[in-house]
Amino acid sequence: MQGHRGPREAPSASGGPALTPEALSALVSVSADGLAVLDANGRFTALNDAAATLLGSAAADLIGRPAPFEPDPGVPPGTPRTVRRLVPGGRFRDLEYRLTPLSDGGQAVWFSDRTDVLRQQERLTAIARAAASVAGAFSLRATLDAVAREMVMTANIVAVQILSLDDPAADLRILGMAGFGPAADFVERLSACRRLGARVRFFDAFVGGRPVVEKHRKASIMADPRWEPLHEIMNRPDWDGFVATPMVVRARTVGVINAYYRAGEDPGPGSLAFLQAMADHAAVAIDTASLLARTRTRAQSDERRRLARDLHDSVVQQLFSMRMQAKALRGRLDRPDAELERVRPIAEELAELSASALADLRLLVFELRPLDLAEHGLVAAVRAHVESVRARTGLVIDVVTTDGLPVTGGLDVQEDLYRIVSEAVHNVVKHAGASTVEVGLRAEEDDLVVLVRDDGAGRGGGEPPGSRDQLGLVSMRERTERWGGRFAAGPGPHGGWTVRAAVPLRRVRAEAAG
């Protein structure tokens, strides 16, 4: 009796036996992974239920259609490869597959869904790199730009914004961005959208302290005329869904991360967990930068006080002694003597120089350590400074204040506001050619507002905005924004020049209390 012969096997391209169609048909029905048979042209001829489920279509609908798995002569049979496929429902899936040649010239393909695993690997890599950026970078903007870039390198996110804000009613700052291209005026355009009545969803995440997920957000924004100022920027990335994740550190929300998802990419639990991890890293970076800035500022303040004390105890006393000696010498020269008369101009010049140097040095000591600020508060320190400038320059300067201003405490924030006033008044003396100046300190709604207004250069808008002492303007802006405030400087509507800094009163009072 002739023995039963099993399916004939042909050699494969790798030197081993190739599966026959008969052998493969038995495997198709029992494989737990996706398994399909392709003809020589790469079209489906058979596939199991798992394969049809992974591909998102019924098996009967796939027969005869081209498969997404392409052979590569340079890749040995059985080598795992990955292909991304858009399945019905608008979702992308990452399928890992292996091809094996068949005796009839076709291919057998085993494949499985590796989307979640691959995404998790990408996210873990991004988290590790972001942590390294937070630990190693010295610039907050550079750190958070790096965090944003790492997030965009993951498969399903095309754009990211990392925003810092203290209050939904206040202006925000962009600390990191990727995927939008040049967008330096994003904040200004967003403010225009808010004035038009656009609903900004990431504020809901900031206030509620929980992520906000918006599917198909791009379509609604692009169709809404209230978002028109931002249409050009928001249309650049190819995105659809949106998630805003609050950044929280030490029980305080410091901002949000906005992630913009590719079409067909729903932000599931794994993606939300990834966003939360990145938000935690960003929040730590912001908090660390704030602590470092406070430490640096206090160290600088301590050094200024030490220098002021040393100058007062040594150089000021020596100059004072020089002035007294010059006065005594001039008194002796009052007696008539031809030889002594030659010395008189020298003595008088010495007395004038020492008096001038003493006045300048006392002003420097006061600038290094405004004693009235620590002892009596911001208003008293500003009045003392204005009186000094008025006596030295003859400039008419009025100080106008209102009730409700904090008087003492919160030395760091009050010193920054004092420096803004002194820098603005210095610019008036140096650049404006003004005859009168008004220095205002007042409470406006929820802000402490510092206003310095003059009648000098800039009248009628003849001076370009921001043209006075760029370094001083940068310093005043940084001091204001350090406390979550808003700064503006430029020609006034009725002539002259105006500097305005507004800092939230709650920050001033919190600094005083803390």
Descriptive overview:
- This protein has a 5-stranded antiparallel β-sheet with strand order 4-3-7-6-5.
- By secondary structure, the chain is of the alpha+beta class.
- Strand 16 and strand 17 form a beta hairpin.
- The N terminus is likely disordered.
- Helix content is 47%, strand content 22%.
- The relative contact order is 0.06.
Short description:
The protein is an alpha+beta fold and 514 residues long. It has 16 helices and 17 strands. The termini are far apart.
Total helical segments: 16
β content, as a range?
A: 15-25%
Which structural class matches the secondary elements? alpha+beta
Shape: elongated
Widest sheet, order of strands:
4-3-7-6-5
Rg (C-alpha, Å): 36 Å
Whole-number average pLDDT? 76
Which regions are unreliable across 5 or more consecutive residues at pLDDT < 50?
A: 1-17, 459-468
**N- and C-termini, Cα separation:** 100 Å
Topology, number of strands: 17
Helix fraction by DSSP (H/I, runs of at least 4)? 40-55%
Largest sheet geometry: 5 strands, antiparallel
Topology readout:
Blueprint: E1 10-11, E2 17-18, H1 21-28, E3 34-38, E4 44-47, H2 49-55, H3 59-62, E5 81-87, E6 91-101, E7 107-113, H4 115-136, H5 140-152, E8 157-164, E9 173-178, H6 186-195, H7 201-208, E10 212-214, H8 217-222, H9 231-234, E11 241-249, E12 252-261, H10 269-332, H11 338-368, H12 371-376, H13 378-393, E13 396-401, H14 411-432, E14 436-444, E15 447-454, H15 470-481, E16 486-491, E17 497-504, H16 505-513
Parallel strand pairs: 13-14
Antiparallel strand pairs: 1-2, 3-4, 3-7, 5-6, 6-7, 8-9, 8-12, 10-11, 11-12, 14-15, 15-17, 16-17
Helix pairs in contact: 4-5, 4-10, 5-10, 10-11, 13-14, 14-15, 14-16
